[in-house]
Design goal:
This protein is mainly α. Helix content is about 75%, strand content about 5%. The protein has 2 domains: about 90 residues; about 35 residues. The relative contact order is 0.13.
Length: about 140
Amino acid sequence: MMEIKKIDILSVARLSACLVGGIYFVAGVVVSLAVAFFGLTAISSFDVLSLSSALLATLLVAMVMAAVSFILAAILAWLYNIFAKYFGGIKIELATAKEPLIKFNGLEQAALKKNLAPGEAIDQAQHEINKIIKEQSAGDSYKS
């Protein structure tokens, strides 16, 4: 079991700002376009000026929310670092892969049995890898 003892404040704040600002911006653009094209005022006349001002307002709101999110995430990361120092951090359990994707067990012995030079053994191994990749690629194309 491993423990997260400290997190980088700036990286958490940046990520939070990008996520929140991006979500607000995309959602705001979608809502603004939907109101412009399907709203009641769009039936009588299409007003490009109100659409552009709505998109500008969306951009400003997204920037403000990104800044607020940046500040809040930085404060929370800072508080986490303080509490983790005194009370312990979040404990996580990581597992390693049980088996490698491609096994090279016995490659040296096989090369010796066939009297292959090291370069030839590598070429043969590369040929086997390409064959495995080709088989897996063919199998994946049938699934989709």
